[in-house]
Amino acid sequence: MQKVDDILSHTIKNMGLQRKYNAQSIIYHWKEIVGDDIAANTYPRVVQQGTLMVGVNSSVWSHHLSMMKESIIDKINSYVGEKLIFDIRFQAGYFSNLQNEGNTDENVVTPTKYKLSKIKLDESDIQIMQDTAAYISDKYLKQKILRMMRKNFALNKIKKQHNWHQCASCTVLCPPGEMQCTACTLAKKHTLLYTIINTLKEIPWIRYAELNNHITCTEDEFRQAKYTLTASISRDLQEGDNDKFKIMSFIMLTTGAKIEAVNDAIINKTLEKFRRNK
Q1: CB under 8 Å to 74, separation ≥6 — which residues?
Q2: What's the alpha-carbon Rg for the chain, to the nearest Å?
Q3: Cβ proximity of 229 and 253 under 8 Å
Q4: How far apart are CA 187 and CA 83, in angstroms?
Q5: Within the chain, how many helices (H) and strands (E) appear?
Q6: Which of 55, 106, 164, 192 is the most exposed place for a label (fewest CB within 10 A)?
Q7: What helix, strand, coil percent values describe the chain, rounded to 5?
Q8: Which of 231, 232, 233, 210 is nearest to 222 (CA)?
């Protein structure tokens, strides 16, 4: 006999709602994911194209959490079991008015301006909603899931009327002329970004033309990956990390110099610069 959680998970996945469900889970289980201290000073608002918007009760906390961003992203993605969140934006001043807002993932573009609550659902859709909700004991979560499912059924009904088709990588519908949905396109983009970053970690001096012979990407994608890695190492150096390999990587990334050209004089000059900035 299947467990309740397995049945619910299977139904959500088959309906193409897994990402929306996981986005809602982040908000619903925020305290469990980040801990009491952070939860007491923040409120997760909404997930938009891989970015989590979080209201924060002060600019001090906003700055503090920005330093912990990568760690929080890892905790979130580990909790939901997929790379759902790629960035977090902490917004000071959005905290007090949002604690009872109950946002969900609204990353959906309606093909035309319809009032989704007025769309009549098929009997089969209603039955699926009822069967799925029957396994949820928590009233708050049940309400959220039912609302999410109803909106999804209504939206898909409209999309099919406008010739939307199934994404090549998942069950979500996407508009005519596009092969993948926004979520899959974004996931593909970030996979490429991390592939380039990992290559730059191994060969920090590599140029775009050389990289493009092995990894097909645009020059903008190469620059974005290089900037992301350089900024990450820069933060480590400013915080007092004197790892020689990181310093050498930073120099090679910013100057294009090959490893044999990096000497102690250049390393000491780089360290001195970051000490002054700090």
Answers
A1: none
A2: 23
A3: yes
A4: 8
A5: 13, 5
A6: 106
A7: 60, 10, 30
A8: 210
Residue whose pair of structure tokens reads 């150096």 in the numeric block: 237
CB 76 within 8 A of CB 85: yes
- Cα first-last separation, the chain: 60
Partners of 173 in beta bridges: 166
Write out pLDDT tens, residues 144-157: 788 888 888 888 88
From the list 153, 17, 168, the residue with the least C-alpha distance to 84 is 17
Q: What is the band of 16 on the pLDDT scale with cuts at 50, 70, 90?
A: low
d(CA 91, CA 72): 15
Domain 4-157 in CATH 3.30.300.180: yes
Q: Look-up: residue for tokens 């499912």?
A: 149
| Tokens of residue 22, six digits | 């996981």
pLDDT > 90 in the chain, percent:
17
Round to whole Å and give the CA distance between 153 and 148: 9
What residue has token string 């939860």? 39
What three-state secondary structure class fits 235?
helix
**Look-up of token digits 């467990």:** 3
